[in-house]
């Protein structure tokens, strides 16, 4: 059984539509949807926003459904200035950008875990599905829709993702993150929390983030429409293929 998490229903709505033999269990105020995608058993859940929500959901998912791996799919704001709307970040390590227990521990270090970043092991099949999706992009997203959101030839970048309990929507904070965390690709609000839970429970974890905004003053404008119309198509395109 593979666990699939996103923060919002809109991010996985199209994948949920193709879930077969669906059964829903409510635990801790969240709906866990089990079933099959092609022949792969999955459990899909929306964590809600933020690190605490994500950690609650992941812990419950692991203890109740015993997944062999967990995949997170969702949207993120770009920190790397070369990233554009619609690009995909395949997360290779996760950091909590709002973790700061100085002077007791170095900035960003998770106290008593002894590290500030959690590395992921690249799942070659998942990465290949991301590439296949991108190579056949216009079979999944129409040219009109891509145009509506200013998406041009999306690219894939492997790299570091930062999470914190803050929606980043100003240039100063955006630049500060760029300076504080070398090679940071994008920012969101859940991934590093899911990564920490998976690290502590020793469950393989993978994460894909689709760039919905540039974490600047206009970050919120297209966010709801992008999530519903575009991000959901990425998740279905990539994960349906992954489960086949
Ligand atoms: N998720 C998508 N865009 C984001 C942003 N700008 N800040 C935090 N989380 C996000």
From TrEMBL:
Q: What is its EC number?
A: 3.2.2.9
Q: What class of enzyme is it?
A: hydrolase
- Which InterPro entries does the entry link to? MTA_SAH_Nsdase (IPR010049), Nucleoside_phosphorylase_d (IPR000845), Nucleoside_phosphorylase_sf (IPR035994)
Annotated Gene Ontology cellular component terms: cytosol
Q: What residue ranges carry the coiled-coil annotation?
A: none
Biological process terms from the Gene Ontology for this record are: L-methionine salvage from methylthioadenosine; L-methionine salvage from S-adenosylmethionine; nucleoside catabolic process
Which UniProt keyword terms apply here? Amino-acid biosynthesis, Hydrolase, Methionine biosynthesis
Question: What Pfam families does UniProt report for this protein, alphabetically?
Answer: PNP_UDP_1
Named in its record, the pathway it takes part in is: Amino-acid biosynthesis; L-methionine biosynthesis via salvage pathway; S-methyl-5-thio-alpha-D-ribose 1-phosphate from S-methyl-5'-thioadenosine (hydrolase route): step 1/2
Q: Which GO terms describe its molecular function?
A: adenosylhomocysteine nucleosidase activity; methylthioadenosine nucleosidase activity
Domain Nucleoside phosphorylase spans what residues?
Answer: 2-241
Q: Which SUPFAM superfamilies match?
A: Purine and uridine phosphorylases
The record's annotation in NCBIfam families points to:
MTA_SAH-Nsdase, PRK05584.1
Name of this protein: adenosylhomocysteine nucleosidase
């Amino acid at each position: 059984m593979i666990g699939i998490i996103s923060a919002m229903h809109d991010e996985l709505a199209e994948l949920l539509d193709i879930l077969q033999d669906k059964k829903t269990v409510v635990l801790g105020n969240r709906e866990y949807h089990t079933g099959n995608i092609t022949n792969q058993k999955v459990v899909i859940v929306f964590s809600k926003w933020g690190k605490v929500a994500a950690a609650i959901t992941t812990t419950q998912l692991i203890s109740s459904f015993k997944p062999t791996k967990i995949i997170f799919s969702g949207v993120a704001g770009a920190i790397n200035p070369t990233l554009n709307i619609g690009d995909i970040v395949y997360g290779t390590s996760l950091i909590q950008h709002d973790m700061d227990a100085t002077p007791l521990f170095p900035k960003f270090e998770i106290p008593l875990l002894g590290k500030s970043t959690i590395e992921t092991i690249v799942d070659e099949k998942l990465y290949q599905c991301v590439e296949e999706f991108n190579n056949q992009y216009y079979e999944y997203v129409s040219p009109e829709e891509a145009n509506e959101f200013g998406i041009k030839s999306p690219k894939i970048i492997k790299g570091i993702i930062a999470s914190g309990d803050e929606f980043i929507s100003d240039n100063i904070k955006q630049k500060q993150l760029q300076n504080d965390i070398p090679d940071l690709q994008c920012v969101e609000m859940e991934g590093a929390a899911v990564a920490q839970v998976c690290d502590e429970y020793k469950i393989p974890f993978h994460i894909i983030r689709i760039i919905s905004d540039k974490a600047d003053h206009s970050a919120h404008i297209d966010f709801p429409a992008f999530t519903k119309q575009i991000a959901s198509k990425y998740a279905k395109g990539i994960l349906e293929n992954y489960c086949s």
